[in-house]
Write a structure and sequence with these properties.
The protein has 3 helices and 11 strands; from the N terminus they run H-E-E-E-E-E-E-E-E-H-E-E-E-H. It is an alpha+beta fold and about 160 residues long. It is elongated.
Length: about 160
């Protein structure tokens, strides 16, 4: 544990029960009206439970009177590309969202190194940095309603271009 953390604490809000990694830095936090906290760290977004979602697994974040978070799961690996499937969105009513919203947006966008769109069938292919690890990962996710097999076919064509 670093000297700063021993002297000043982790920066996490009172009542936060998650276990931060030794090199994980708290950037912002906000209380959730139904209990718990949203905690933005250098490694990911902590949601009530608590559990951390790595920045590379957040597909969408939007403010709709509450924070709406769409987390992705790694469904398949096709060559050098990880295919993602979106999980159902989660909503969190925050008491003071401003600083948290800005920090989340910066972290999600900051994890993306390259993005490419395959219009047919509707697939985003991203190169993202995974917090706390060296290097990048290629990821692909289809638009809503696009079957995983269609994403896989688009990724196969994309991966062939990477190996040329």
């Amino acid at each position: 544990m670093g000297l700063f953390r021993r002297l000043f604490g982790s920066g996490a809000p009172d009542g936060f029960t998650g276990t931060l990694e030794p090199d994980e830095t708290v950037i912002a936090s906000a209380a959730v009206q139904s209990g718990g906290h949203i905690v933005v760290t250098s490694l990911g977004l902590w949601v009530p439970g608590p559990r951390r979602i790595g920045w590379h697994l957040i597909s969408k974040v939007k403010w709709e009177g509450a924070l709406r978070v769409v987390e992705a799961r790694e469904a398949l690996v096709e060559g050098p590309v990880v295919l993602l499937e979106d999980l159902p969105p989660e909503r969190f009513a925050l008491e003071q969202p401003d600083r948290v919203l800005r920090a989340i947006s910066q972290r999600v966008e900051g994890s993306i190194r390259h993005r490419e769109r395959v219009e047919s069938p509707g697939v985003w292919i991203l190169q993202r940095k995974i917090p706390g690890r060296d290097g990048v990962v290629w990821q692909a996710r289809g638009d809503a309603g696009v079957e995983l097999q269609a994403v896989q076919a688009a990724v196969t064509r994309f991966a062939e271009g990477l190996t040329r």
